[in-house]
Amino acid sequence: MSQVKFYLGEDIPLELHKVRVVQKLHLVPIERRLDAIKEAGFNTFRLSTLDVYLDMLTDSGTNAMSDNQVASMLQADDAYAGSQSFIKLQKAVEDVLGKKYLLPVHQGRAAENVICRAFIKKGDIIPTNYHFTTVLAHVLENGGKIEELLHDHALVLHSDHPFKGNMDIEKLEACIQKHGVDKIPFIRMEASTNLIGGQPFSMSNLMDVRRVADKYGIMLVLDASLLGENAYLIQQREEQWKENSMADIIKMMTGLADLVYFSARKLSSSRGGGICTNRKDLYGKMEALIPLFEGFLTYGGISVREIEAMAVGLRETLDETMISQSPSFIKYLVESLDKLGIPVVTPPGVLGAHVDAMAFCPHIPQTEYPAGALAAAFYLISGIRGMERGTISSVRDENGDEILADVELLRLAVPRRVFTLSQVKYVIDRLAWLYENRDMIGGLKFVYEPPVLRFFMGGLEPTSDWPEKLMIKFRKDFGESL
Ligand SMILES: *Cc1c(COP(=O)(O)O)cnc(C)c1O
Question: Which structural domain, as residue segments, surrounds residue 294?
């Protein structure tokens, strides 16, 4: 997209859409927010949106739809089998992702369930650039293990490396040599590696991975949930692809993979998901699992209205004015925080801004969950709901000991086309205040810990009365202000 330049020199992103439907938000006083976060067990997942001002929990299923998407939902073909809506989706998948065979699933993790059940056997190893929470859970559930093969620079949080999501090809070779081809049913590449700050991989890296996959005859699986933005950043950051359209870049990426799956809650700004391939043999291995876990093969547990919106949304992914909106707002947010000296993952990635909680709160030991504590503290002083991406989002080992996460991040998601620039400025303002008062933030401990995906419903409590003290300081500095 040709960036619009401002005459007065301000460097801000410009919205290339207008708002036609709005929804009221609730900015409740800090006294209510303190009660709310206590009721939620200091876990932002458990907050009610009536207590949330800006919902930056996730970009999953929270993106704004276009007028054309909403319009398409009225034309949906309600049929258990053979729905015309599904045929439209198949056509969109073929046109945009270049894959003929499509299996619909109710969301991204459902695709992971089907793929892992179909291809993983006990003792298998899945090399990946980096794991995502749900794929890790499904790999483990099927008796497999993940091996993360990021480049060493990927976990340098403050960096200017344009492609921190790249897989280290030497590590991939070594991993295959070590475990043997028979133990590796597929290599998994995740577009815009979610958990390390929405960092993309380059096209040349994906080509290198493909070469290794071909050399050993191993299948390559692409998690395309954040594909559009990864493609956009390839166009912005990789010299050879500067002149190419989104359509070309996306087709090239998906063309390198044998199997592509996605969460439509992100890709296409709708709801649902899909698995697609041009290989009939792979399709055949998964087909029977769809009616078992998802629904009939022409709806897969998704409403036909959402299937219509998905088809339109997939095509809109090719529109640079649409796909660039979220990354350009994130760039503004990240660069503003960086200028204020607030520790944030750089370069700006996709899906949100990621605050480095270990640098923000170096006084909180990792066993007291600095990212979880920062998420709770930030909600308390702003009404903004972010998400912990650190040790709480990790798992315990066989002995029940914590596996401390590589990074402790507060993720502030920027759903596509949802927030205005003044709302983003409010985020920056409140984070700046919290950074000034960071010494007041304390740790958390678990009081209720579910055995699987504990971060969703787990309950915690503060290790001292730090939330009350933080509230008193807020009132002192802001007076009666919300
Ligand atoms: C969100 C996400 C998923 C899971 O998708 P859901 O629709 O939330 O189940 C899988 N992979 C990546 C990279 C994601 O960002």
Answer: 67-318
3-class DSSP state for residue 444?
A: strand
Q: Is the pLDDT of residue 2 over 70?
A: no
In this predicted model, what pLDDT tens digit does every residue of 73-120 receive, in sequence order?
999 999 999 999 999 999 999 999 999 999 999 999 999 999 999 999
Catalytic residue flag (residue 266): yes
Same structural domain for residues 293 and 407?
no
445 tagged catalytic: no
> Residues with Cβ < 8 Å from 425, sequence gap 6 or more?
none
Question: Helix axis angle, 227-237 relative to 325-339, nearest 10°?
Answer: 70
The best mutation among 57, 113, 132 to test binding of ligand 1, ranked by most ligand atoms within 8 Å of the C-beta, falls on 132
Residue 260: its H or E element: strand 259-263
Same-domain pairing of 92 and 203: yes
374 & 353 share domain = yes
Active-site residue, from 55, 124, 223, 356 = 223
Q: Is residue 11 part of a domain?
A: no
CATH number of the domain at 312, please: 3.40.640.10
CATH code of 437's domain: 3.90.1150.10
User: In terms of residues, how long is the chain?
Assistant: 482
Question: What mean pLDDT is predicted for residues 214-231?
Answer: 98
Q: Please name the residues in contact with 239: beta carbons below 8 A apart, sequence gap of 6 or more.
A: none
Backbone angles phi, psi at 212, to 5 degrees: -65, -40
pTM for the complete prediction? 0.95
Domain total for the chain?
A: 2
The 10s digit of each residue's pLDDT in 418-452 is 999 999 999 999 999 999 999 999 999 999 998 88
Distance CA 161, CA 39 (A): 41
Please confirm, yes or no, whether 193 is among the known catalytic residues.
Answer: no
For the CA of 111, the nearest atom of ligand 1: 9
pLDDT in tens, 119-138: 999 999 999 999 998 999 99
Do 416 and 366 meet the contact criterion of CB atoms below 8 Å apart? no
Closest residue CA from atom 8 of ligand 1: 108
Closest CA to 428 of 316, 322, 353: 353
Please, are residues 414 and 330 in contact by the beta-carbon 8 Å criterion?
yes
Mean predicted confidence (pLDDT) in 358-378: 98
